[in-house]
Structures are given as structure tokens and as C-alpha cells.
Specification:
By secondary structure, the protein is of the alpha+beta class. It folds into two domains: 183 residues, Jelly Rolls; 107 residues, Homeodomain-like (Arc Repressor Mutant, subunit A, Orthogonal Bundle), CATH 1.10.10. 44% of the residues lie in helices and 19% in strands. It is built from twelve helices and eleven strands. The protein has a seven-stranded mixed sheet with strand order 8-9-1-10-3-6-11. A four-stranded antiparallel sheet has the order 2-7-4-5, with no helix packed on it. Helix 9 packs across helix 11. The longest helix is centred in the middle third of the chain and has 21 residues. It starts with a helix and ends with a helix.
């Protein structure tokens, strides 16, 4: 598995469609802030709208454009010209996703609204690389071909109910997030971050090595060899593209892998510590507490309580 895919896997990012909006004339929809670990997105299929942001800015959203709010900020979606409301907005629950509409005739605006849900901490490396407002046009560049394909399939699936349409729409939404990250990572002027690092074909190899062999006694020189660079060149280019040093990133990735194994496996904590390069369980525990905010044992116990509650809720007749 490549490093980009592995980092996404550790982040546990899932996508979902919340509602399809079909509007004509005037409309205003308030979106309160999302809880931590959730990000808004709006995908305009037809027409245009205005998104008023909490900092006072307004962003025009036209057909073929996507707006992502990675930190789930409150905002208002409204018609472009503040036209009078023709009919009250109603929500109908039939179809693949609920439909919010103020018209019985042909809609002037067709907007898909949803969210990306992720694990805080695990996804921080990705989400902090993104601006507060990410606006992408899917029509302006050949590099957007994959995104346009996803949008076309989403439009087709939400148009009318079909067997498996919701499952497919959910899978497409997660794919949408991956392609948005890829498209953003190919842009110019990005801030230094893990996304920039993963977009470099040589530095990417060093990150992949950290993920594949977290227990190895890595040094900057050994990581430079993975990238087929001299130590000096590797250190310079890493600093230009990452907001962390190689050793800082290694520690963060080790802690994310430890979280994954604590959630999924019954290995003793000392064995997990050794897997991620710590001979001392005490030293591992201190580092884990610093980066995750809890001890390894408490993290495992809390996860098992959540998982147990979920499975109890899923039992027939409960």
C-alpha cells in the first residue's frame, strides 16, 4: 500500500450525503457548526448559490464546483440575488437521500450537501494541511477528470432510487474526498504539510518506509537512502515541504499506528511498543500520552467500550 493510502486508512475518513437541495427563487439555509471530527461539503450540480462564511466573506458556488469546510465552520447557503421566497422549504425523506426543496416545478439550483467524518488526532496530519475554505472548480483542468467522473456518478445515483444506490453514493463520497485531496495537492502555493510531502515521488518513499517499518531505528541518513538522496539534500527538501522534521513525523506516525493496533488487536501493550520502535513500555507510554492525550491502556479500554456499545445496539430485539 502506498504511503498516501496508508495515511488515509489511519485517518478513518468516511463520507456521507446528508441532503439534496432543489431550489427555485429565493432560499436561505443555515448550517450550524459541525462537531469536532466532521467537515461540511457542498457540491453544485446545477445553478449557483452564495455561501456566507463566519468571517464575513461570501463565496460564489457555481455548477461544477465544490466547497469544503474542513473544520466544520457554521455558514449560510442562500440564493445569489436575495430573491423573495416563493414557497416554504420542505424536506421529503424519499429517495436515496432526503430532498430539501421550495419548488414543485423545475429546480434552478441542484445542490448536494454532505459531510466527511474523521477520527480527530489520526486525521490531523491531513486536515490541518487544508485551508478553512477549500473551493474547487471541477471543470477547469484535465487533472479534474477523476473528480468529474465521481460527480457524474453521484448525480446519476441520487436522481432516482436504485438497488444499492445509497451504498454506492456513500462509497463515491469517500472517493470524492480522496480525489479532492489529490487535486488540492497538485495545486501551487500550498502550505508545507504532509500532503505536499506525499506528493513528492522521492520523499514519499521515506514516509512509506516509516509506515512499513515503524520499529526500525531510523535516522535521517537512513531515510535519505530510502528517498535516493544525500542526507543534506533530503533534509533540505523535507524542510521545504513538511511542517515537521523527519523524526517528528516518524513519532507521530508511530503513535497513529499504535492507536490502530490498540483498537484492532489484543497484543500486550509492551509488544505494540516494540512494534513502533520502543524497547521501554514506560517510554512508549509517556510519548503516547503526550501525542494522544491518554495512556495506551485507557485508549484501548475506551475504544472497546464504544465498540461494545455499538454491537449491543446492533443486536436484534434490543
Amino acid at each position: 500500500m502506498d504511503a498516501f493510502s496508508r495515511v488515509l486508512e489511519l485517518a478513518h475518513i468516511q463520507g456521507s450525503l446528508d441532503v439534496r437541495c432543489l431550489f427555485a427563487g429565493g432560499f436561505t439555509v443555515d448550517h450550524p457548526p459541525m462537531p469536532t471530527g466532521e467537515a461540511f461539503f457542498h457540491l453544485m450540480l446545477k445553478g449557483e448559490a452564495r455561501v456566507d462564511l463566519p468571517d464575513g466573506r461570501s463565496q460564489r458556488l457555481a455548477a461544477g464546483e465544490l466547497l469544503l469546510l474542513p473544520r466544520g465552520h457554521a455558514h449560510v447557503v442562500r440564493d445569489m440575488y436575495q430573491a423573495p421566497l416563493r414557497h416554504p422549504i420542505q424536506v421529503v425523506g424519499e429517495g436515496v437521500v432526503p430532498v430539501r426543496s421550495n419548488t414543485d416545478s423545475e429546480a434552478e439550483v441542484d445542490l448536494l450537501c454532505g459531510r466527511f467524518v474523521y477520527a480527530p488526532g489520526s486525521a490531523d496530519l491531513i486536515m490541518r494541511a487544508l485551508p478553512d475554505v477549500l473551493h474547487l472548480s471541477l471543470e477547469s483542468d484535465d487533472a479534474m477528470e477523476g473528480l468529474r467522473g465521481i460527480v457524474s456518478l453521484l448525480r446519476h445515483e441520487v436522481a432516482e432510487p436504485r438497488p444499492g444506490a445509497l451504498a454506492l453514493a456513500t462509497a463515491l463520497t469517500r472517493a470524492l474526498f480522496v480525489l479532492v485531496l489529490r487535486a488540492y495537492g497538485q495545486g501551487n502555493g500550498m502550505r508545507t504539510s504532509l500532503l505536499v510531502l506525499l506528493g513528492d515521488p522521492r520523499l514519499n518513499q521515506a514516509v512509506a518506509a516509516m509506515l512499513n517499518y515503524p520499529g526500525k531505528d531510523w535516522t535521517v541518513s537512513l531515510l535519505a537512502e530510502q528517498a535516493a538522496m544525500s542526507r543534506a539534500t533530503f533534509a533540505r527538501q523535507f524542510a521545504q515541504k513538511s511542517d515537521m522534521s523527519p523524526m517528528e513525523l516518524l513519532t507521530v506516525l508511530r503513535m497513529q499506528l499504535a492507536c490502530e493496533w490498540l483498537r484492532q488487536e489484543d497484543l500486550p501493550i509492551g509488544d505494540i511498543a516494540e512494534r513502533v520502535g520502543y524497547q521501554s513500555e514506560s517510554a512508549f507510554g509517556k510519548t503516547f500520552l503526550h501525542h494522544v492525550g491518554t495512556t495506551p491502556a485507557s485508549f484501548r479500554r475506551a475504544h472497546r467500550q464504544v465498540a461494545g456499545s455499538y454491537y449491543q445496539d446492533e443486536k436484534p430485539g434490543t
